[in-house]
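User: Can you predict the 3D structure for this chain?
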Amino acid sequence: MEGTSSGNAMTEIALALAMAFFSIMVLTMVSMGVAENKTPAVAGAMLAPAADDAKAAAVKPRTDDVIVVYHGGRFYNRDLQPVDPSSINTSGRALLALSPALPMGEAIAVRTQINVSNLIVSTLDSRWLKTLEGMTHDR
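Assistant: Here is the predicted structure, written as structure tokens:
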């Protein structure tokens, strides 16, 4: 009987170690379980539909306004005569009209060339663009 019990002792020890490791594994899995998601609810923003008939704000020209047109890398006055942007000096408003297709970087660079405190930047309409294109084709 002693021969059979010594073989069983090693089996008993192996079973005890297996149960211990299994218990540790179960406790670890329970303690590291995923906590409940307790993120606060975010209020959703309600967006109003955009109006299809929205128009850009129109700037009413005044008699003392200085109009500067930038087209094709050149500056023009209201009579479409070439003008130097550094010579523009007014205490009133200055209207800078640019092509709508002008890249933003170039528009900002053009804007910085005119040193006027009250500068309004606007886009050229189709009539101005046709006139300016006619001027550049004539040259």
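The chain has two domains: 1-30, 66-138. The two ends are 120 Å apart (CA to CA).
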